[in-house]
Design brief:
Number of helices: 6
Structural class: mainly alpha
Helix content: 40-55%
Order of helices and strands: HHHHHH
Distance between the termini: 34 Å
C-alpha cells in the first residue's frame, strides 16, 4: 500500500503494520533504502495573477506548525519538513511509518519505476508488468517495452 492508506479508517487497519524489508545475510542492499516517491504536489500556474501571494501560501504550508496540523494530523500525509504529530491525532500505522522514515537512507533510496521512466516509458512499463501478471511471456513483454523505450529515446 501507500501513504494514502495511513489516514483511512478501514476496518482491517488493526491488522496492518509497517516494517522494513528483511535483510538477507550477505546481501548488498540496505534495510534503510526505501522505494518512495512524492505523494502530494502543489503547483502554481505560471499564469497566476498574484505569484507573490501564491509563493507566500506555499511557504506558509511548509512551516512546521501548518505541516504538522494540516498535513500530518488532519490529512495523514508526510510533510517535507520534520514534524512530531500528536499521537492522539494520527493513526498508529502513521506513527509506525514515521518512525521507519527516521532511519531512511535518502541517498540510496529510489523512486517508483514508472515515475522514474517518464510518462511514455513509464506507462509502457506498467502495461508490461500487467501483461506478465495476465500470463504473457516476460521475455516477449520486455522486448515490447524495449521497443517503446528505443522509440521514445530517439525523440
Amino acid at each position: 500500500m501507500g501513504c494514502w492508506y495511513l489516514s483511512t479508517q478501514s476496518p482491517v487497519k488493526k491488522y496492518v503494520g509497517a516494517f522494513k524489508w528483511p535483510a538477507i545475510e550477505g546481501g548488498k542492499g540496505n534495510v534503510n533504502n526505501f522505494l518512495a516517491g512524492i505523494e502530494q504536489v502543489i503547483a502554481v500556474s505560471s499564469n497566476c495573477k498574484n505569484k507573490q501571494a501564491a509563493a507566500a501560501w506555499l511557504k506558509l504550508l511548509s512551516e512546521q506548525r501548518y505541516a504538522k496540523d494540516l498535513l500530518a494530523e488532519k490529512a495523514g500525509y508526510f510533510p517535507t519538513v520534520k514534524v512530531n504529530p500528536d499521537p492522539k491525532k494520527v493513526t498508529g500505522l502513521y506513527l509506525e511509518v514515521l518512525n521507519l522514515l527516521k532511519d531512511q537512507n535518502t541517498k540510496d533510496s529510489f523512486t517508483y519505476y514508472d515515475v522514474m521512466f517518464g510518462p511514455i516509458i513509464g506507462d509502457g512499463f506498467n502495461n508490461t508488468i500487467q501483461s506478465i501478471y495476465l500470463g504473457k511471456d516476460p521475455v516477449e513483454a520486455f522486448k515490447k517495452l524495449a521497443e517503446i523505450a528505443k522509440k521514445e529515446m530517439k525523440k
